[in-house]
Design a protein that fits this description.
Structural class: alpha/beta
Number of strands: 16
CATH class of the largest domain: Alpha Beta
Largest sheet: 8 strands, mixed
Strand content: 25-35%
Bound molecules: zinc ion
CATH superfamily of the largest domain: Zn peptidases
């Protein structure tokens, strides 16, 4: 058995305890003050000097005793703003927040890796930068860490992350090469009309009528203006107009949505078209509209050569038969893509599905369950990939 996996198996009680602590106390966005306090205390106990590089973003360095390159390993820490409905005895005690994306497991695995790396610090030929990232779910954390200089001092040569998946068997590692996950651009279209009595529509301008026409035109935008060979989605997730009255035409409303794709040039063109369609359609009916861009994350690029290397190292931990090349790319997004834009990167999807397949539900569901049996694999894969990559790239 791989030596890091053997040791990680001994650490299971600690990995599980940490994971359950995080699960019980979820925090969202970059307001992870209690989470960060806990992670920091654990890292300090291991002997690390912890740096808070941006709001609720932590970095520690392992190794550095022998010359060499620097590899960054990243785990994200934020939960989702949603109530939990798993019935677990360690369910969220923070109403309206839940670790439904498995970032509680990511923290536990990365803390496990930090411990393993500390125990093997003399063997590290270079430096491992261990990075606890806030605010992945709204695509702000990776960007904030990079802007705060996480890729320098020492300069980072490659970056690696793991995300757990609730649908795959424990210990499988799913990976892609090239563009593997879509970009994400979030928007709010604020529609302005003129409110009036529902019995006299001629005296006002209905923002609902405008909103519906914008909605339909946006769906046609993809059907008529995008090459069918492109993979691209535009989803309006909510339309908020009025307060439930039957006889009132409201004065304004909003459509919220996201665009996903793999072609940055096309996405830029579509951003411009979303604005033209929204404003133009509103004006046709005598109203107005304004598009607010809420977030933007690039498509995830996994460097093929770096991928081949980390796949080889990780196979030693989980077994070659559990390394699964992706059959297709996903339109879901990950802000680790910001790292992928800067340095050779890879994000593995670690299977953490519960044994009973009928109970498997995807990430972001209030009933999602993750198997804690995945924890030692995650800790060992982080460690193995970091140490082995540095050994081969002196
Ligand atoms: Zn998520
Ligand atoms: Zn996630």
């Amino acid at each position: 058995m791989n030596k890091y996996l053997a040791r990680a198996n001994q650490l299971v009680p600690e990995l599980v305890e940490n994971r359950r602590h995080f699960h019980r106390h979820p925090e969202v966005r970059n307001e992870l003050f209690e989470t960060v306090k806990y992670v920091k205390a654990q890292l300090e106990d291991m002997g690390y000097q912890v740096q808070e590089i941006c709001q609720c973003g932590l970095v520690v360095l392992a190794g550095g005793k022998k010359p060499g390159k620097c590899i960054l390993i990243r785990g994200d820490m934020d939960a989702l703003p949603m109530p939990e409905d798993t019935g677990l005895e360690f369910s969220s005690e923070n109403p309206g927040a839940m670790h439904a994306c498995g970032h509680d497991l990511h923290m536990a695995m990365l803390l496990g890796a930090a411990k393993l790396l500390k125990e093997h610090e003399d063997e590290i030929e270079g430096t491992v930068k261990i990075c606890f990232q806030p605010n992945e779910e709204t695509f702000g954390g990776a960007k904030a860490m990079i802007e705060a200089g996480v890729l320098e001092n020492p300069h980072v040569d490659a970056a690696f992350a793991i995300h757990v998946g609730s649908m795959a068997d424990v210990g499988t590692l799913d990976y892609g090469k090239g563009l593997t996950m879509g970009s994400a651009d979030g928007f709010s279209i604020h529609v302005k009309g003129k409110g009036c009595h529902g019995a006299a529509p001629n005296s006002g301008i209905s923002p609902i009528n405008i909103g519906v026409h914008i909605y339909l035109t946006l769906q046609e935008l993809l059907a008529r203006e995008v090459n069918p060979a492109e993979q691209c989605t535009l989803t309006v997730g909510s339309m908020l107009f009025g307060d439930g009255a039957t006889n009132v035409i409201p004065s304004e409303g909003v459509l919220n949505g996201t665009m996903r794709g793999f072609n940055a040039e096309l996405i830029n063109h579509l951003r411009q078209r979303v604005e033209e369609i929204s404003v133009g359609t509103a004006r046709v009916f005598g109203g107005d509209a304004e598009v607010e861009w809420l977030f933007s994350s690039p498509a995830m690029y996994c460097d093929p050569e770096f991928t081949d290397e980390v796949v080889r190292y990780a196979a030693d931990v989980v077994g070659q038969d559990r390394m699964i090349p992706k059959k297709s790319r996903a339109t879901g997004s990950e802000d680790f893509a910001y790292f992928g834009e800067k340095v050779p990167s890879q994000i593995f999807w670690l299977g953490a599905g519960v044994d009973d397949k009928t109970k498997r539900i995807s990430n972001h569901n209030p009933k999602v369950l993750f198997s804690e049996d995945a924890l030692p694999y995650g800790a060992a894969v982080y460690t193995q990939c970091a140490i082995e990559w540095l050994k081969e790239h002196k």
